[in-house]
Amino acid sequence: MIEPTLLDAFPILHDLDPDAVRRLTAEAQPVAAPAGSILARPGEALPHFVLLTRGTVKVRGLSQGGREIVLYRVTPGETCVLSAAALLGDLALGAELVAETDIAGFALPQALFNRLTAESTAFRKLIFATLATRLSDIVALLEDVAFRRIDARLAAYLLGKGTGSQALTHQEIAAELGTAREVVSRQLKEFERRGWVRLARGEVEIRDRDALSQLDAQG
To answer: What whole-number distance in Å separates Cα of residue 128 and Cα of residue 175?
Structure first.
C-alpha cells in the first residue's frame, strides 16, 4: 500500500490505478532534511520529484550578483511546478529549493515521474493542480516588482505580517521583495523616522498600520 502519510497529504493518490500504486509503492523513497538545507540549486538536473508530506519548501530565484527573490512556497498537498517543468522538459532547474522548515516526503525517480505523468490521469491532475495558481502568483510578483514603488511594496509586506513585533531581518525582507538589503534598510529607517515602525535587531514592530495602509494604496 501507499504510505499513509503520502495519502494524507495527497488524497488524489487514492484514485491511482493498481499498476501505478504498485510502482509508486516500490520505487518512491522516503526523504527528509532539516530547516535551512539547500535541496536543489539553479542549473542542476533533478534526479527525482519530491511529494512533500511535512514542512515548507521555499522556491527562490537568484541573480548572478547574489540577490534573491522568493517566487513561491510549497507545502504538503502542493507540487513544485518548476521542478515538474524541469523533469518533464529534461531541463536544468531554474530556481533554488530551500527547506524553510524541517521537511519530509517521498522522492520519485525521474523515470517513474515521467511514466506516471504520461499514463495516470490522477497523477497528472496532482502535478498540474497548482499550475494555474503558481503562474498567476509569479505574474503578479513580476508586475509588483516592475511597476510598484518599493516603499509601497514594503508597506504591503509589513501589513501582511500581522500586528505588533515581528521577527524579521532586513535580508529576509529584501529576499521576499526582490531588492537589495540596503534598499530595505534605508526604507525601514524612513518608516521609523515617521513613527510608523520601531526597529530592533532582527525585529520590526508596526506602530501605525493606517499610515502603511495609505502608502500601500498609493503605490
So the answer is: 27
